Amino acid sequence: MYKGILITKDDTGYMSKVAEITPKPLQEGEVSVQVKYSTLNYKDALAITGRSPVVRSFPLTPGIDFSGVVIESKHPAWKEGDEVILNGWGVGEKYSGGLAEQVTVSGDWLIQKPITFSFKDTMIIGTAGYTAMLCVMALQKHGIKPSDGKILVTGANGGVGSIAIIILSHLGYEITASTGRPQESEYLTGLGATEIIDRAELSSQGKPLNKEIWAGVIDTVGNYTLANACASTKYRGAVAACGLAGGMDFPATVAPFILRGITLYGVDSVMAPIDLRKEAWERLAKELDKTKLDTLTTEIQLSEAIHFSNEILGGKVRGRVVVKL
Predict the structure, then answer these.
(1) What percentage of the chain exceeds 70 in pLDDT?
(2) Do 26 and 291 meet the contact criterion of CB atoms below 8 Å apart?
(3) Claim to verify: residue 134 and residue 244 sit in the same structural domain
(4) Phi and psi of 65, rounded to 5°?
């Protein structure tokens, strides 16, 4: 038996609680992992609280990522003692995930933990940091260089935004951080932001085209924020969209795309191919300033995760929440 958060749904309603879970026999191709650290992401908070239909199979343990040590394997790539990480693949949605002391997953979904990171480091980075790197990679593959101008990062106090700022700063980019918490300006400039703007400047309906400001954008918000970011992106610039904290709508026009030739990249971290994941984590190991990780981290125990889920959805938590198992 091992402890984990268990989400159930029946005639009595939707419930999340810490419970004792019985492990199931390992199937061919599966790997059991002793979880060292997991995280509490926005999607996990939605799953735990039931505010959005994230969970598609019941009962289920949430947690879209984890790091840990292989304790049993029926997959040829992995053996007992291997140190591994996982992000996405429907874990925490369709399949039980990392907010438990033990997890069993397909060995095809695992990658080796970079030796430069501790278990805790990998989950401070987590899916948020891995997604941030995918966004940076999208802008760079588009050809955007530091000399091209400012990069806008929306939802800057969140996990993706915070780590995107650290990466972009290390690479020499000038960063404008958009946040709904201007009192956190010192925190954001400490991560590497050069300018702070209030999210209210972007979060209501704007013009089809605005003044050209951003060479590139990393957007975690969606809705009017994404539309306005596109409307202010420079000619031939690019926007990497990876989140919907402000809503799924995209109330925009085609004007920025056909009059300025901008490109909108959709960045998916859940089903990204293994080679892209490995590239992202290899680059994180080289290009992420680890000295800044602790400044954006809150560490909690499994028993605190349900409470912190409401704090995250209420916009009361900055940076990353890591869960020690």
Answers:
(1) 100
(2) no
(3) yes
(4) -155, 165
Task: Establish if 271 belongs to a structural domain.
Answer: no
Q: Which of 73, 7, 88 is nearest to 274 (CA)?
A: 88
Q: What is the pLDDT of residue 296?
A: 82
- 6-20 pLDDT, tens per residue? 999 988 899 999 999
Instruction: Find the angle CA(68)-CA(165)-CA(159) to the nearest 5 degrees.
Output: 45
The H helix count followed by the E strand count for the chain is 8, 15
SS3 169: helix
Rg (CA), the chain: 20
pLDDT at 52: 86
Q: Are residues 204 and 176 in the same domain?
A: yes
Same domain flag for 82 and 176: no
**Partners of 16 in beta bridges:** 7
- Per the listing, tokens 């680890």 go with 290
Cα→Cα distances 281→8, 146, 149, 284, Å = 34, 22, 26, 5
**Separation CA 119–CA 33 (nearest Å):** 13
- The pLDDT assigned to 39 comes to 95
Domain of residue 98, residue span: 2-113+293-324
Give the span between the Cα atoms of 36 and 13, in whole angstroms: 31
More confident position, 142 or 42: 142
Dihedral over Cα of 117, 118, 122, 125: its sign: negative
- CATH number for position 212: 3.40.50.720
Residue carrying structure tokens 């749904």: 9
pTM score: 0.91
Structure tokens at 210: 């605005």
Q: In this predicted structure, what is the pLDDT of residue 313? A: 87
Q: Are residues 247 and 131 in the same domain?
A: yes
Average pLDDT over residues 272-293: 93
Confidence of residue 303 (pLDDT cuts 50, 70, 90): very high
Kindly state the average pLDDT of the residues 22-35.
Answer: 96
- CB neighbour class for 185 (10 Å; exposed up to 12, middle 13-18, buried from 19): middle
Note the pLDDT of residue 277.
Answer: 95
Q: What is the longest distance spanned by two Cα atoms in the chain?
A: 60
